[in-house]
Amino acid sequence: MTISATSVRFDDATMWVALEDGRTVGVPLVWFPRLFAATPEARARVEITPFGLHWEALDEDISVPALLAENPRVAAE
Question: CATH no. for residue 25?
Fold first, then answer.
């Protein structure tokens, strides 16, 4: 079974990804240098697909299974 993202938000240091199973995963932005260096406006232009997260202008793709494999912080919403 594949878990998909439903939304993405950012704070100063973390990317928070809400998952369809109710969890929210927080990962450090420094793990993704393109996102870390991007403006908030560029980060907000994320495309959520069944395969993960995609930022066309930043040339960045992140899969949800990869996020979960990295042992991120997980919070209940």
Answer: 3.30.2020.40
**Residue 66 amino acid letter:** A
* Structural domain containing residue 44: 5-76
State how many domains the chain has: 1
Instruction: Give the single-character DSSP code of 44.
Output: H
- Are 60 and 35 in contact, with CB atoms under 8 Å apart? yes
* Residue 68, token pair as written in the block: 């979960």
pTM: 0.86
Chain segment 5-62, per-residue pLDDT in tens: 999 999 999 999 999 999 999 999 999 999 999 999 999 999 999 889 999 999 999 9
User: Helix-strand-coil percent breakdown of the chain, rounded to 5?
Assistant: 25, 40, 35
